[in-house]
Amino acid sequence: MPRRELESIHGIPLYWCFVEKWGQVEAFQARPDDLLISTYPKSGTTWISEIVDMIYNDGDVEKCKRDAIFNRVPFMEMSTPNFINGTEQLDKMPSPRLVKTHVPVQLLPISFWEKDCKMIYVARNAKDVAVSYYYFYQMAKLHPDPGPWNEFLEKFMAGNVAYGSWYDHVKGWWEKAKDYRILFLYYEDMKEDPKREVQKVIQFLGKELKEEVVNKILHHTSFQEMKKNPSVNYETMPSWALDHSISPFMRKGISGDWKNHFTVAQNERFNRHYEEQMKGLALRFRMEI
Ligand code: A3P
């Protein structure tokens, strides 16, 4: 499929193929027992999705390998010609459903707020997101050409990338977490102490799992295991959508890779912009772990 420019949906740059069916997204009916997994792209969506699916299945690895992650945790707003339609997939699913989205708060279908669904938001530091997104833009053909790194970084800072500004996204969800049932997690914390963070998720979901089950979940969702697991590493996706010969989806799985990509000048410019955008907020990110 040839690459195409992003389109604007209510002011947010998004994939051209979402436009036609956006009405379905707006009209999507959440159910009270849906669990919404929300992230800005490249923040650990697939990781938290697999953790939650493992928790829902009491650590049964075979059940979690039964199907690709994008069928077990459908991507709500995804709409591609003749391939995936997230809302249609979800409408057919039995409850309780796991739903994935990357939308900023203002684009979330209103029924999620009305039904007071539980939600998990995972945030990752902006520098590592920018780097991870740069590789993803290259491999995922739904995106326009990212151009050279320097150009892409400028676009990222300006919010001129799919799903818009990272800053607006994390700030929007952070604000909502004050009033709704949202567990706000950080990728860096998950890297630092996966057991502690998985326990938080278990508690948030109101489950009780034996220590051995928790350990199984941790093993199954480690980067090394997920990298070789075809049900989560997207290798079953057609190459017109994701080209793994350009970059693997499970690329490095670390915090601080930005240091291998940002020049000193880029870092200084980024830091100035970052300070302006995040001024006065209690929201703090660690840039490495
Ligand atoms: P990198 O490109 O920095 O390696 P998403 O699922 O939101 O698209 O995020 C993808 C990023 O999460 C990639 O980052 C990927 O390697 C990382 N990731 C996926 N599974 C992970 C895991 N189990 N542990 C750590 N990082 C993981």
Summed up, the helix count is 14
Number of DSSP-assigned strands:
6
Based on Cα principal axes, name the global outline.
Answer: globular
Please state the CA-atom Rg, rounded to the nearest Å.
Answer: 18 Å
Q: How helix-rich are the residues, as a percent range? A: 40-55%
- In spatial order, strands of the major sheet run 4-3-5-6
Q: Work out the strand percent.
A: 5-15%
Question: What would you say this structure looks like, in words?
Answer:
41% of the residues lie in helices and 9% in strands. The protein has 14 helices and 6 strands. The strands form 2 sheets. Strands 4-3-5-6 form a 4-stranded parallel beta sheet, sandwiched between helices. It has a two-stranded antiparallel ribbon with strand order 1-2. It is globular, with a radius of gyration of 18 Å. The termini are far apart. The mean pLDDT is 96. The structure holds adenosine-3'-5'-diphosphate. Adenosine-3'-5'-diphosphate (A3P) is lined by residues 39, 41-47, 128, 132, 135, 221-223, 226, 250-253, 257.
